[in-house]
Write a structure and sequence with these properties.
Layout lengths: L8 H15 L13 H13 L8 E10 L5 E6 L10 H12 L1 E9 L2 E8 L13 H11 L16 H4 L7 H7 L1
Antiparallel strand pairs: 1-2, 2-4, 3-4
Helix pairs in contact: 1-2, 2-3
């Protein structure tokens, strides 16, 4: 998917935190002295999905280190688009969060700006505690969403000229476009 999967993005951030705290003490007052395991996972996910943490379209000064009820989440602004394939940042984000059992919440905050919030979950427990890994999520989805559903992609059938007839399914608009 990309070459950033093998890098330790959290280690890079850890090296930068002291400098960031000295430069902007009010902005980074809640930043930890040392990233914990959950924070390391989040920044590695952002680094992989964003094409390197230093390249990621996140706004470092918007990081909320103690986000949510109980302050056990992390939140930050993402300043760019996300997609499922051509630019697969959205797919990577979702897949990586599933593998780490981290809940990611996406909220709109402005034009081309979204807020990403992350919360660590567990393998077992009720809905607000549990998070499936990727294999479990796909299995649950396949059991719920049947393969014969009308939105599933199927290639259109090829029609031969003998199936169409003199003008058959051909629209005049199509003929004009080809000329």
């Amino acid at each position: 998917m990309n070459q950033y999967v093998g890098l330790d993005h959290a280690a890079w951030l850890q090296q930068q935190l002291d400098f960031m705290k000295k430069q902007q003490p009010k902005t980074y007052k809640d930043a930890p002295e040392k990233l914990n395991e959950f924070q390391r996972k989040v920044f590695n996910i952002i680094g992989i999905a964003g094409g390197g943490l230093y390249n990621s379209p996140i706004s470092f000064n918007t990081i909320k280190w103690n986000y949510g009820i109980g302050g056990n989440g992390i939140s930050m602004s993402w300043i760019n688009d996300m997609a499922t394939f051509d630019s697969d940042k959205l797919t990577l984000l979702v897949f990586l969060c599933h593998e780490a059992r981290i809940r990611c919440q996406i909220d709109a905050t402005g034009p081309k700006r979204i807020q990403l919030s992350f919360f660590q979950r567990k393998a077992e427990g009720r809905g607000s505690v549990r998070h499936p890994n990727l294999d479990e999520a796909v299995k649950e989805f396949r059991e719920w969403f049947k393969q014969d559903h009308m939105i599933n992609h199927t290639e259109p059938e090829e029609k031969s000229l003998s199936d169409i007839g003199p003008l058959g399914d051909v629209l005049l608009e199509d003929i004009w476009r080809k000329q």
